[in-house]
Amino acid sequence: MNLIEDLKWRGLLADCTDLDALAERLASERPITLYCGFDPTGDSLHVGHLMGQLTLRRFQLAGHHPLALAGGATGMVGDPSGKSAERNLLSPDALAHNVACIKAQLARLLDFDSPTNPARLVDNAAWTAPISFLDFLRDVGKHFSLNAMIAKDSVRSRMEGDHGISYTEFSYQLLQAHDFYHLRKTHNCELQIGGSDQWGNITAGTDLIRKKLGTPAWGWTFPLITKSDGTKFGKTAGGAVWLDPQKTSPYKFYQFFINTEDAKVCEYLRKFTFLSRAQIESLEAAHAANPGAREAHKALAREVTTLVHGADAVDAAIKASAILFGAEIGDISEATFRDVVGEIPTIPFAKTALEAQSDSGNGEATVGAPLIELLVHSGLCPSKGQARKDISGGGIYLNNVRETAPTRSVTTADLLFGKHLLLRKGKRSYAVITVE
Q: Which of 44, 202, 322, 411 has the fewest CB atoms within 10 Å, counting from its CB?
């Protein structure tokens, strides 16, 4: 498949200003320069931003020249698209911090060292900040009809809503149009890509380029990713799934994708991975034949986590995931262990009880706390008698190691990372005891 056919097959085309003309341009021997913008409204991008980065990368792999734009200027205004209320304006210092963080994340997915078509980072503050307000109105604003601006979906929906729209956000499409015009003029950038909610902003840019330069330019949008119920993709009970490993750990990132709903996993394989059509269709067939094997889910989680966090992070996430299926604890980090057991009931326990002398029942002194008492304390067993039976029956595990001696005492030597005990009853009943 050529690039456009591949993007269509992956479901990455929502709208294009002139698809036939763009296809003809891409079929020529000259590579095209394209850009996608990322406004630094926070200090990390999230998984919803992956579409833009991955689509830039697909063009780069096809030999084209990608520009990733960090919106140091537009981020100060805020895009009204998809928002029901005005954004909070950021201070210059906060914005500069966010831009620096986002630039580092963009460098993870794009090849900035390619000898033939390296990706480039640009910041629209560089060319927007020097322009005076009057110059902007004369050189840019005069080319826009107020009627056309109001007709844009992102503006009209806000005007009809409860909160309205400020002049600041109303002017956002002029700033983005000027970005495209500037990049067309200075970097020979002929194509802007973005989510379908950016269609109005992108076409404002192609119109400005036509009026001021008289040269061709195209806009391409990909569909916004949603869950089966229509809600926004990338949100969990704990909030957004971030690309920054300090905000969303690689383990939790991996878990987000491996827990993809069955109805969406094949779609996400096409959109979020660089697996070939043959590989994806093989996974789709396996998923249709036996969804319980979760081959498609594992491939999706592995591929996306590798792209964002690297192969080592994937290996650690897979090892960590196996812990709740009885695998050995191994050499995972304490932070990863905390992620793994984060949804398991955690019960505090006095560390001194694992160090103190206790009566074993036959007049001899032993060190530590009886495992039987810990099973009751954790709630895994309703009584000491039941705990004794469960241990004797081979159904109790300490740190994923089966314990068969009812007289087993637990000491500080058993603590994971000096503070945790992982108890399991049967195959799926877990509890964590954390000493204080």
A: 411
